[in-house]
Amino acid sequence: MKYKVIDNFLDEEYFNELKAIFIGGEKDTEKRVPWFYFKDISYSKDDKGWKLEEEDDISFFMTHLIYDKNMPISSLYDDLIPLLQKLKASCLMRIKTNLYPNTHKLREHIPHIDYAFPHSGALLSLNTCDGYTKLEDGTKIDSVANRVLLFDPGTEHCSTSTTNVPARFNIIINYIQRSDIKE
User: Fold this and answer.
1) Which domain holds residue 138?
2) Between vectors from CA 7 to CA 170 and to CA 100, what angle results, nearest 5°?
3) DSSP string for residues in 8-67
């Protein structure tokens, strides 16, 4: 599986602005992300149909959808334009942020795909924690603040919770690049 990991992806000042919006912290900002509760983190389809997390799992997360269905749907979209420019994203599909709460035991969520076709994806970690993203080949990409994972989210991957900080925060961007288009 092809993927690329880039540490210190954004300049420190801009990264701290994003952290202040999505996590809060050192830099004061009037902007704050409204988080929305989702009961199930992921689901996958096997030969018996759609499968959700086990019922006894702590499987909720919080999310904020920023761009979907060909349009910005959050006032925070403009704050991500420098990030989108750095990625050179040609055609946006979706932008969302995730907040995975602390669990006493690290939980690896069910593998899933974002869209059922090859495309580009960027996962920007907003904080450092013991959580990770696991790719289809078993590679684990640790959550490190200002680290971006570039990969094809049309292949199976999974997220995790965290145990050593209050929550794991990331921004996920699904997009098409010119190199994704087969000619």
Assistant:
1) 3-24+59-177
2) 20
3) S-S-HHHHHHHHHHHT--SS--S--PPPEEES---EEEETTEEEEPPTTS---EEEEEEE
Cα R_g (the chain), whole angstroms: 16
> How many separate domains does the chain show?
1
149 assigned to some structural domain: yes
Domain-embedded: residue 97? yes
44: nearest Cα among 124, 137, 136: 136
pLDDT tens-digit map of 126-159: 999 999 999 999 999 999 999 999 999 999 999 9
Maximum alpha-carbon separation in the chain: 50
CA atoms within 13 Å, Cβ hemisphere of 96: 16
CATH number, domain of 137, equals 2.60.120.620
Q: Is this prediction's pTM over 0.70?
A: yes
Is 30 part of any domain? Answer: no
Which phi and psi (to 5°) does residue 16 adopt? Answer: -65, -35
Is 88 in contact with 130 (CB distance < 8 Å)?
Answer: no
